[in-house]
Amino acid sequence: MSTNQTLLQAFQQASYPVAGHSKRTVQELKRALESVDANLAGDMYGTGHVIEDFQARMAAYLGKESAVFFPSGTMAQQIALRIWCDQKNSPKVAYHPLCHLEIHEKDGLKELHHIEAQLLADTDRLIRLDDVEQLDENVACLLLELPQREIGGQLPDYSELEAISAFCRERGIKLHMDGARLFEITPYYQKTAAEICSLFDSVYVSFYKGIGGIAGAILAGESEFTETSKVWKRRHGGDLISLYPYTISSDYYFEQRVGRMQQYYEGAKDLASRYNQCYGFRTIPAEPVSNMFHVHVNVSAEELEPQLISIYEATGIGLTGNLRPTSESSCYFEVSIGDRYTDLPKSKLMEAFQLLDAAMKQI
Amino acid sequence: MSTNQTLLQAFQQASYPVAGHSKRTVQELKRALESVDANLAGDMYGTGHVIEDFQARMAAYLGKESAVFFPSGTMAQQIALRIWCDQKNSPKVAYHPLCHLEIHEKDGLKELHHIEAQLLADTDRLIRLDDVEQLDENVACLLLELPQREIGGQLPDYSELEAISAFCRERGIKLHMDGARLFEITPYYQKTAAEICSLFDSVYVSFYKGIGGIAGAILAGESEFTETSKVWKRRHGGDLISLYPYTISSDYYFEQRVGRMQQYYEGAKDLASRYNQCYGFRTIPAEPVSNMFHVHVNVSAEELEPQLISIYEATGIGLTGNLRPTSESSCYFEVSIGDRYTDLPKSKLMEAFQLLDAAMKQI
């Protein structure tokens, strides 16, 4: 058994995990299904009330003309970029070097769509206006991920986002949002989702991050764009005879949680502050701008792990289930705050951080 | 309202629809979920008991080394053909002109994989050994659909299938099975699924035809093949964080119905015989070889439709929800037998066919 499996087990057995909503069990789907009548007709290849109504409500929420439900963001985003490339007749896009399409999709964009990506910015910082100003002329689409997950969920200032959007419109470069965590940033920006989306030509949102659904994504934009996306959805094998297990659960958990994003954001700031007061720890961002952040630790995963396990056992608090090495003597982990954080016994949490601080000073 | 919508409505309101298992409602998913504990952990990106156990059992059932669950057959089959083309370094496959990939997938195979297909046989007949013997040398893979759905679900003699398989192996052409309705043909061939699959290098099966699940597919073959298919599944956007709504329902309805294929086959033969005794009707095949067949009628859809509606209203029997024109004075429809046929009041069914025969003689 690897080291990480032991930490994961201790985390899974902890009474009070700090991150997320709940365990990913079949209960999540059963609960969502209880909200609908058993006689509700399933969707058939993208048609039927159960999918069309949800698409229409999401289009309105995002302030776009139309929206299409996809089984995954991987599929939705490749298709969005393909449509913009075809429209400009140029197989070139631009995105961050740690973009989901670059590091998590086995090069689907290149292997299936033959689209090349210009990587903007360094791996440890956001794309800035001056990066965008350097874009090749033949770039069909710029993808911005809000927040930029792989660097802790950072966000540009809203004014910079507006400037990037204006620049792209002027140059005829389409702007696509990887909004996997769009709902989660509305409290920081103090903007509605529709206001943020108005800066973009196309938007993808996910239903299993802050929303906590089972799986599924929405791709939104003008009707001509979304109609074309349905053709590509069929080609990708994503136009399933029935997607209702995902649309119903996405709808249910969206209604339940989209109003709690401020709470998750406040929770993230609270927890990050506790880490930043702890010896050897710092968070990125220093103050979170969404429900997520990264925790960097200046000891190795091997040194930290037994300390964490004993803290979980002593307090019941579960801080993380994994540690990823950044060097021989440092590591990091990701935290996303959900429903669980509010109900956490704060005295136990304080005790866990006191133990962690003391342990770190001993390492 | 179009003519077909009226017929569809009358069919949906009929007390005794002859085809299928039940209406496609959320109840089907709820029932399947009742069979599992709410605390069962969901799958995560293709890992976890809930998906791995089902894959292992399906691999064993199909007599293959390994199996991977896919959200759709469209995705699974494009990927199978891509793998065989890459292995031979030739972007060429062969299949029937009415193959699913040719007519129902918006040219995904061409648009995403740049694979060209040699079309074998005429649209109204099966691929024969002598067609296969004409195959171009650079064809990487031959796809056979068993049964050939778009021509009524016809099947070659098993000996011809064996000869095609032997020829392909000798020539280094991979043989892939579109087994969307594989379970449904085992009674006619008097073979196990594994015996039939042994003639093929790769096999796709579906869980929402005779099995009656919500959606989903299995792709099976040697481990090297299925491991590569997982990479392409990720690229296609099919490696969802959780596929358990489909794996659980596929598993549940597979266990419930795979043993009823003889019953569905007998039902199809019984119903086809009733049509063939009716004036102006004939079925393809004349005697079904699975649970499905096509019904061809030598009057126009416009003439037949009001007759059907009045028969549904008089007897409660619903024969079909749609009619597709084949000429100005002929039409056809497809029938797939499932759970419903057994419990049908046979006196009502007899009455419906007496009325149909009489009506047809008047047209």
UniProtKB/TrEMBL annotation, chains A, B:
Cited InterPro entries: ArAA_b-elim_lyase/Thr_aldolase, PyrdxlP-dep_Trfase, PyrdxlP-dep_Trfase_major, PyrdxlP-dep_Trfase_small
One CC-aspect GO term: cytosol
UniProt KW keywords: Aminotransferase, Pyridoxal phosphate, Transferase
Superkingdom: Bacteria
Family listed: Belongs to the threonine aldolase family.
Entry cofactors: pyridoxal 5'-phosphate
Biological process (GO), any one: glycine biosynthetic process
Organism listed in the record: Paenibacillus albiflavus
Key word Transferase present: yes
Identification of the protein by name: Aminotransferase class I/II-fold pyridoxal phosphate-dependent enzyme
Cleavable signal peptide: none
Molecular function in Gene Ontology: L-allo-threonine aldolase activity; transaminase activity
Boundaries of every Aromatic amino acid beta-eliminating lyase/threonine aldolase domain copy: 37-296
Record has Ion transport as a keyword: no
